[in-house]
Amino acid sequence: MKKVLLRTTNLSKSFSNGGVLQHVLKNIDLELYEGDFTVIMGASGAGKSTLLYALSGMDTPTLGTIAFGDQVISDLNSDELAVFRRRHCGFVFQQIYLIEGMSLMDNVLSAGLLVQKDRKALLRRAAELFAAVGLSEETQKKFPTQISGGEAQRAGIVRALINSPQILFADEPTGALNSQTGLDVLKLLTEFHEQGQSVVMVTHDMRSACRGNRILYLKDGVILGECKLEPYRHGDPGRQEKLAAFLTEMGW
To answer: Which residues is 189 bridged to in the sheet?
Structure first.
């Protein structure tokens, strides 16, 4: 029996657009499980990123609750949510928000020092993570303007993992990368997942979605269906065929 990491009840999110209320998420009941690679798919405007931001505490719901274990995070104020995110969540975005005036290593350490003050322990973990994503010591000393987009995204993954988050949230992590660099990033996310990292990823790309073992399809703010897959294995044509059939059924 898998452990439930996050649970939503009647999760709803609405926005006012020119005086007209738009219901982006509608009464979503969802459980996310430890050790899963969960993928959220759907057409543009379906509410994918809104759901990701709500689940991660980056946004608050209009109605409903979000529970992380026994803690109802939807009841927390903005300062409490910031502490929650630092301790329990890691984030990888399509746009890579590295601080330009800091080296890659200092970008990572600045995130780590918000949670723990043992600089030596942080340096050891950062070095291990940089090695895992294939960034050399020389590259770690560079500034964001001196590296490629692929290197920046790998540094972003290191920063996201420095505090050993229970969930890694990724919002279109390959969307701004070329095909090969995107594959490299997907490979890294898969490897960390295989080591036990729980991942929740938004994507519109089938190649990326194939990395997940649970695919949720969102339409008009509602989870229309889900597809369960075996753990990812490279070169498994049946996996893509099963996902393609599911997406066709969903009207993708």
So the answer is: none
